[in-house]
Structures are given as structure tokens and as C-alpha cells.
């Protein structure tokens, strides 16, 4: 059933202008304690904010030149990117850097002013475990399927997926599958919506979705919707707007979004907006942040909310960007 968005009350209309202003204001709060507490997320935060702006149809709301300058200032000689200037290189911030540069069409700047795509690819490839096929987040060796997905995401955008052992990585994902159809952070770990997204999306990039138990996974994911319409990350947990992305995108990739109540989920996300000051929170009444703003808007895009650009369910970036970079 298609929802009639025009009949929604004012508080359930998408507050586009307020969200744009909220995201624009985030870098102007340098006198606030929280700004410096979150420095380790600066590059990730730029990706979240920029993605939200692109989906809202306002890609110009952040200055392109300054965005590129900041991203390149975070790059190390080894090709990796830190979360902010002076921070160690890490897989997650490197992936965000690649995604940002892809969105603002600045791979040429990476070649001419940065260390180049090849060096970035070399850094990411160096983090693959040759025995298990999975990836570490940095030189200190923490392994997680988030890093595997991040590697596939960034390398495919750079056209460098051939630098890693894709088959061994796919075998590792298969080993993370559980009896309930879901995937965990590592073999034997419990199923979790976030990890399911990383594994399903990585399999999609590798062209190996036939390994997914679609019906069993679809059942587990659809059971994440609770009475209020929101989705949770695993059984017996509270609903959270961010799972509007992790769960819904996974359902989209396996063709099962019709197994949940889309209207209830839409209303839950829209109820979590601050319609005056902008931003989206984890659930109605809580403080907003750029993380939930990004993934709430991405979820609404998957739900065909009017006024939003289509989001790619595998990359969590505008479909227009993916078409320009990958040609599909």
C-alpha cells in the first residue's frame, strides 16, 4: 500500500529546510564541549551530513572546495585517512573519505592533490587477513565485518576491488551466517541488524547474493518491527531510527520490504524529527544527532518519501552518484 504523504499532519511532514540548516550548523559549534568530544568521528560525520544533504536535494549546502580540502588534510602517506587531521589512519574514516570524494566528484583531486587512488587501495588491501579473508580496522588488528564491507565499498568505488582476495572474504561472510538466516560480527556471533547489512551489502558488491537464505533472513529482519512501527537491532531491544536503514536496506537487497508495515515505519521516523531546529533523533522526544539524521533520511528515501533523492541500498549514497561512478 502506498502512503498518502500529503494528508499527514504538519509534524509528520519532512522538515527539509530545518534539516539542511541543522547540518550546516554542525561545524559552527566549535565553542561547544561536544564538538571536541566527537573529533574522532569528524570525517564520518561529514559523510553522514553530506549524504543527508544530497538525499534532501541540497548537495550545495556544504561548500565543495572546503569539503575536499578537509578530506585531503586527513590523508596519511600510506594512503589511509584519519578521522581528522592528526588522527591515525583507519578503515572507517578511509571509507568515509572515499564516499565523500565520490559524492562531490573529486577523485581527480585525490590524484592531483592527494596520495592517489592506488595508494588508498593499497592501504585498504593491506588490512585484509590473508588467512581468514576478513579485514582489520587499522594496524592494531581489530577485525569486524564492518571493515570487510567498508573495504568492498571503497575499493569498488575506486575500481580497485581486484586488489583483495574477494573469494576468501566471501567465504568469511558465509562463515558468519547463523541458523536464523542472519549474520554476526564474526563466525559464531549472534545475528545483529547492523552486521547483517554489512554482510548482505558486501555479498551484493561481490555478486554473491545467492549465498543468502532469503526467506529465513527476511523473516528475522521483518520481526525487528515493533508495535510503534520502529525497528530494532535484535530481539528484545528498543526501536531506533538508525535501524530504519540497516534493516530496511537489507530487506531491499533481498526483495522483502513488503514484509514490514512501511506506513508505521515512516510515521515513526517522521515523529523523531525536530521540526523547528532540524535533525532526527533515535526515537521521538530525544536529542537529535547527525548519525540518526542521515540514516533516518536514508530510510525515508527507501520508503519513497516525497522530496528525497533515491538512495542506493548497497552503498548508502545517492543512486545518482553510484550511477556516475559505477555506471549502474
Automatic annotation (TrEMBL):
Q: Does the keyword Repeat apply?
A: yes
Which keywords are on file for this protein?
A: Metal-binding, Prenyltransferase, Repeat, Transferase, Zinc
Query: Under which EC number(s) is this enzyme classified?
Result: 2.5.1.60
Q: Which cofactor does it need?
A: Zn(2+)
| Domain Prenyltransferase alpha-alpha toroid intervals | 14-317
This entry's comment on the bound cofactor is: Binds 1 zinc ion per subunit.
Q: Name one GO molecular function term.
A: Rab geranylgeranyltransferase activity
- Membrane-crossing segments per the record: none
| Family to which this protein belongs | Belongs to the protein prenyltransferase subunit beta family.
Please explain the role this protein plays, according to its UniProt record: Catalyzes the transfer of a geranylgeranyl moiety from geranylgeranyl diphosphate to both cysteines of proteins with the C-terminal sequence -XXCC, -XCXC and -CCXX.
PANTHER family attached to this UniProt entry: GERANYLGERANYL TRANSFERASE TYPE BETA SUBUNIT (PTHR11774), GERANYLGERANYL TRANSFERASE TYPE-2 SUBUNIT BETA (PTHR11774:SF11)
Q: What is this protein called?
A: Geranylgeranyl transferase type-2 subunit beta
Organism encoding this protein: Neurospora tetraspora
Amino acid at each position: 500500500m502506498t502512503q498518502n504523504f500529503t494528508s499527514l499532519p504538519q509534524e509528520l511532514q519532512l522538515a527539509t529546510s530545518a534539516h539542511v540548516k541543522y547540518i550546516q550548523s554542525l561545524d559552527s559549534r566549535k565553542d561547544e564541549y561536544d564538538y571536541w568530544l566527537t573529533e574522532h568521528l569528524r570525517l564520518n560525520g561529514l559523510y553522514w551530513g553530506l549524504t543527508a544533504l544530497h538525499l534532501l536535494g541540497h548537495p550545495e549546502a556544504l561548500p565543495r572546495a572546503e569539503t575536499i580540502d578537509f578530506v585531503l588534510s586527513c590523508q596519511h602517506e600510506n594512503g589511509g585517512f584519519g578521522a581528522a587531521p592528526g588522527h591515525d589512519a583507519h578503515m572507517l574514516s578511509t571509507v568515509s573519505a572515499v564516499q565523500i570524494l565520490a559524492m562531490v566528484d573529486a577523485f581527480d583531486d585525490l590524484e592531483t592533490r592527494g596520495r592517489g587512488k592506488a595508494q588508498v587501495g593499497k592501504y585498504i588491501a593491506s588490512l585484509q587477513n590473508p588467512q581468514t579473508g576478513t579485514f582489520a580496522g587499522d594496524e592494531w588488528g581489530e577485525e569486524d565485518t564492518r571493515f570487510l564491507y567498508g573495504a568492498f565499498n571503497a575499493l569498488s568505488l575506486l575500481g580497485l576491488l581486484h586488489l583483495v582476495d574477494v573469494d576468501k572474504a566471501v567465504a568469511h561472510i558465509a562463515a558468519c551466517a547463523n541458523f536464523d538466516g542472519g549474520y554476526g560480527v564474526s563466525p559464531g556471533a549472534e545475528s545483529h541488524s547492523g552486521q547483517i547489512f554489512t554482510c548482505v551489502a558486501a555479498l551484493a558488491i561481490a555478486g554473491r547474493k545467492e549465498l543468502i537464505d532469503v526467506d529465513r533472513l527476511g523473516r528475522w529482519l521483518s520481526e525487528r518491527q515493533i508495535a510503534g512501527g520502529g525497528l530494532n537491532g535484535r530481539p528484545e531491544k528498543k526501536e531506533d531510527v538508525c535501524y530504519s536503514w540497516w534493516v530496511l536496506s537489507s530487506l531491499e537487497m533481498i526483495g522483502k520490504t513488503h514484509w514490514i508495515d512501511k506506513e508505521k515505519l515512516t510515521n515513526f521516523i517522521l515523529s523523531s524529527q525536530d521540526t523547528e531546529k532540524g535533525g532526527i533523533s533515535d526515537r521521538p522526544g530525544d536529542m537529535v544527532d547527525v548519525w540518526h539524521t542521515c540514516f533516518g533520511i536514508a530510510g525515508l528515501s527507501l520508503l519513497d518519501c516525497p522530496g528525497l533523492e533515491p538512495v542506493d541500498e548497497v552503498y548508502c549514497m545517492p543512486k545518482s552518484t553510484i550511477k556516475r561512478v559505477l555506471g549502474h
